[in-house]
Specification:
single chain; 935 residues; mainly beta; 4-stranded antiparallel β-sheet
Length: 935
């Protein structure tokens, strides 16, 4: 009996001591709201941690007696470390714990969406906007630090990520990319974002292999109050003002949010790049009852900006990285000839239905309409010769960087007269800008003689009308299983045409093709519209080309998510049918039988399947796996080989195929968060279409061609590492690494097309097409930013609400975009189909070696301070990018003009190439300053 009593006593002591516990409730220090998912842990004890529930409550059990530190950690809040003394057998109630929110502006959201993003059409494609809502240190660094270098996560374009607003997809059918400028400048109201990375499950859509971002603009979910922001920068714009107010949910069941902004500047970092943008936003919600709510969103963000040029090394050496060839002085002010203009309002109506406690149905309709314009000069104006009836005239190319204006041209063609090259250099260095006065004078001189304008400014226009409808179902079948599904429909009508915007002092412009040939055989070949020959157009008229594209898509997806104690997994599938049809409104003289009217109606059916699994070894050690296979329709851009002039479709076009998987190890603790990921993506049967003027086609011939690269396979292999450590309550360290190898995985087929005329037939074209078979691209690197990037940095957050951070970023393995035509049989064969008699394989290999850009390092600084004044908040932050003013290349491309060995050999032998590679350069040292007042 004594032994039993003794054992019972030991067990009682053990049991009582095991009841040492700590409880409390965590609230927001400013609002007194409960904070869920705060990590509460015992410092130095990896096994003692819990998270707060929806009421902010927590309970730590089995805490060792004695003095311990309790640590409270939550993203967006200052870390709180509380020393306490635990007594055996007692529960220590800490009562209410107040966490202070760290009032720090989201630098990326404020600056990136309308500053660092690309113009949606160049090789400098950027996905930073897709990543800005992420809490993952790797993705956050990719957006904050790597965006200015046009770094692409996993080497993928933004068309591989899906962007939604209230569940409505915003990716464009033309190129598959989201157009962030449609909501640019509305930073305050696009903060509510939900990001899923890569192939992981999204509740709204199947998504892309790069991930999904859903922007929520539901009025009742904005914080009540207002905000006024002023920003100054020397990047894209120089000034910005944003004002926003949200009512919160009123007793009447109504809620509204309004926002207005303006961004402007006469010049950004590059010369002559003005910025002029306004933004308006309205969201109104009516909660009809407990189960039904309607929300209307309207977005209007018209914007205009001057574009900058990609330059050769010769131009860079003479004028520096700020130089831009597109502008010149007119009446004492800078005028840019290349202006991008976007006016595409979005109207959206969303119905939210809580069918049951765990089931919701979100039904949406949206209408987007408006216009995009991209201006440029046309110097091919002509008159009709009364004798022959053929066009005569034309003006010289006014570009200051036209090859015949640069020193290299004179060095190559007049080597015995170096004075000519010197004079060209002096003229370019001392001026080197567009001469608007000369354009007006040329038109006026022609007008005096009764002629038409020879120089004009026109816009390439795309006027879209798009209707979208979808419905999204989410239901929690039980505590472990969630089911998601949607059905969606989109209808697009896109009008595409050229429109004259400025006759530059002229009274009319002859709508013909000044470069047409074979006029003695076919006089109609010169006409842009045979049904309206020799038409003289004026400002506001359409000319040159005019067609419509109609596209319809219908699809859906279904997904099941399973969550258990040790394992989470999901499976999803999608199907989408896409149709395209072109209707030509002009009968082009170069394609008289294949330009007017409707093309063949194309139909593509894409399927997708994906799945993922997360294994939770412990609460700190997780393993995550995702895999997917997707087929998708090619974009409109890569379906019609020359949509401006004819109905031709890329032969044997088919759906693109994508196989992708990744595996990650994730570590999470109160101090350290880390993710290590390996990935593989294979993209097959893609198409690429390019347009350029080429010398050396089929021997020594010249032609303006459409280059179609068909059946392109790409391979993306690499790894990602993101690591951040909360060293103290105020200091955080971070490190990020991205190592990738992105290559062409096969030798695709190449053919070029042009008008079927005598010159083309002499070059070997048959019915306007010249097939070169396979082109040697396998193992060449894919261009598009650095394939390796590293970042190390720190952040200091003071309890008095000031903060400072610095990062050093290292970039390498960035490559030029190679010319496929130079890697085809055209490169080494003469007009007779035989290899050039002076062809040197060793020299050819050297000439065709892909250029790799120099490595570089960028240092960025950021910091700020905020104050709470009663119920108001005032603050600022400032950033300096590229502190040491490093010059670096972000991208570039080989000019396809030197299409064969002889042309490229002779050009490369010069001290300065005439048709050298063209480059984009990153910005030098820049700043961004932001001041805000919140009430």
């Amino acid at each position: 009996m004594k032994k039993l009593i003794f054992l019972f006593g030991l067990l009682s002591v053990w049991f009582v001591s095991g009841q040492n516990s700590i409880t409390g409730i965590v609230l927001d220090a400013n609002t007194d709201d409960a904070i869920q998912n705060v990590l509460v842990s015992v410092a130095g004890n990896n096994n003692k941690e819990v998270v707060t529930d929806a009421s902010g409550a927590f309970k730590l059990t089995d805490v060792a007696a004695g003095k311990v530190d309790i640590v409270f950690t939550k993203d967006g809040y200052s870390v709180l470390r509380m020393p306490v003394t635990v007594t055996d057998g007692q529960t220590l109630d800490l009562g209410t714990i107040l966490l202070k929110k760290f009032i720090q502006e989201d630098v990326t959201l404020l600056a990136l969406t309308d500053d660092e993003l690309n113009d949606d059409s160049t090789a400098a494609d950027n996905i930073s906007g897709l990543l800005q809502s992420s809490r993952d240190v790797f993705l956050r660094t990719a957006a904050f630090e790597f965006g200015a270098t046009f770094f692409r996560v996993r080497g993928l374009d933004s068309e591989n990520g899906t962007v939604l607003i209230n569940g409505i997809e915003m990716n464009k059918a033309f190129n598959g990319r989201p157009q962030w400028s449609n909501w640019g400048g509305l930073n305050d109201v696009v903060r509510n974002q939900e990001l899923t990375n890569g192939l992981t499950a999204s509740d709204y859509t199947f998504g892309g292999i790069l991930g999904t971002t859903n922007i929520n603009t539901r009025a009742s979910q904005y914080r009540e109050g207002g905000r006024v922001t002023y920003s100054s920068s020397d990047r894209s714009y120089t000034n910005r003002i944003i004002a926003t107010y949200s009512s919160g949910l009123l007793e009447s069941g109504w809620a509204y949010t309004i926002s207005a902004g303006r961004r402007w500047g006469d010049e950004g970092f590059n010369d002559g790049t003005f910025y002029d943008a306004n933004s308006l936003f309205l969201s109104v919600e009516k909660q009809i009852n407990d189960n039904h709510s309607l929300n209307f969103t309207g977005i209007y963000a018209p914007n205009r900006r001057g574009l900058s040029s990609a330059n050769t090394q010769e131009v860079f050496d003479l004028k520096g990285i700020r130089y831009n060839e597109f502008w010149g002085y007119q009446d004492g002010e800078k005028r840019n000839s290349r202006v991008r203009r976007v006016i595409e309002p979005i109207l959206m109506l969303n119905h939210y239905w809580d069918i049951a406690e765990n089931t919701t149905l979100n039904t949406n309709i949206a209408y987007q309409f408006g216009e995009q314009g991209r201006s440029r000069l046309d110097f091919g104006g002509t008159d009709i010769d009364p004798g022959s009836g053929f066009p005569i005239g034309n003006a010289a190319n006014p570009s200051p960087t036209y090859y015949q204006n640069l020193p290299s041209y004179f060095t190559r063609n007049f080597p015995d007269n170096p004075l000519l090259a010197f004079q060209a250099q002096e003229a370019f260095v001392n001026d080197g800008q567009l001469d608007w006065n000369a354009l007006y004078i040329a038109n006026q001189n022609n007008l005096v003689n009764g002629g038409n304008a020879v120089n004009i400014v026109y816009e390439d226009r795309a006027d879209d009308r798009q209707f979208t409808a979808n419905t999204i179902l989410n239901t929690a079948i039980n505590d472990n299983i969630t089911f998601n599904a949607n059905v969606n429909f989109t209808s697009l009508v896109s009008e595409n045409f050229a429109e004259i915007t400025d006759l530059l002092g002229g009274t009319g412009y002859l709508d013909v093709d000044p470069f047409a040939s074979d006029l003695d055989v076919d006089p109609g070949a010169v006409q842009n519209d045979l049904n309206n020959p020799n038409r003289v157009v004026t400002e506001g008229d359409r000319f040159r080309y005019n067609f419509e594209i109609r596209s319809n898509t219908i699809g859906g997806f279904a997904q099941a998510q399973f969550k258990y104690k040790k394992v989470d997994f999901f499976v999803g599938a999608s199907v989408k049918n896409t149709t395209y049809q072109r209707e030509g409104l002009y009968r082009n003289g170069g394609f008289p039988t294949n330009s007017l009217g409707k093309s063949e109606k194309l139909s593509f059916t894409g399927f997708g399947a994906k799945g993922g699994l997360t294994y939770k070894l412990t609460g700190r050690h997780l393993f995550d796996f995702n895999a997917g296979y997707v087929t998708r329709a090619p974009s409109i851009r890569n379906t019609f080989s020359n949509s401006r002039e004819n109905n031709n479709i890329v032969p044997d076009i088919t759906e693109e195929k994508i196989t992708s998987f990744d595996a990650s190890y994730i570590y999470r603790s109160p101090i350290v968060k880390a993710r290590l990921t390996g990935y593989y993506t294979k993209m097959e049967d893609a198409n690429e279409i390019s347009f350029f003027f080429a010398d050396g086609i089929g021997g020594d011939n010249q032609a303006f061609v459409q280059e179609i690269l068909q059946g392109v396979d790409r391979q993306h292999i690499g790894g990602e590492l993101g690591l951040e450590a909360q060293i103290t309550s105020t200091i955080k360290l971070k490190g990020v690494a991205s190592l990738g190898q992105f290559t062409f995985a096969n030798n695709p087929n190449l053919f070029v097309t042009t008008e079927d005329n005598q010159d083309a037939r002499a070059a070997g074209f048959v019915d306007g097409k010249l097939d070169f078979g396979q082109v040697e691209l396998k193992d060449y690197r894919i261009a598009g930013g650095p394939q390796r990037a590293f970042s190390v940095g720190f952040e200091y957050r003071d309890p008095d609400y000031w903060w400072f951070g610095a990062t050093s970023n290292f970039f390498s393995n960035a490559y030029i975009d190679v010319s496929p035509l130079q890697r085809s049989s055209n490169f080494y064969t003469d007009f007779d189909g035989q290899v050039f008699n002076d062809y040197d394989p060793e020299l050819a290999r050297e000439l065709l070696q892909q250029e790799q850009f120099d490595d570089y390092m960028l240092v960025n600084l950021v910091g700020g301070k905020s104050w709470k004044l009663g119920d108001y908040y005032v603050g600022f932050f400032a950033s300096i990018n590229n502190v040491f003013d490093k010059e670096y290349r972000t991208g570039g491309f080989e000019q396809g003009r030197n299409a064969n060995f002889r042309e490229l050999r002779d050009d490369s032998a010069l001290p300065t190439r005439v048709f050298g590679n063209r480059y984009w350069y990153g910005r030098g040292r820049t700043y961004f300053l932001n001041l805000y007042f919140r009430f």
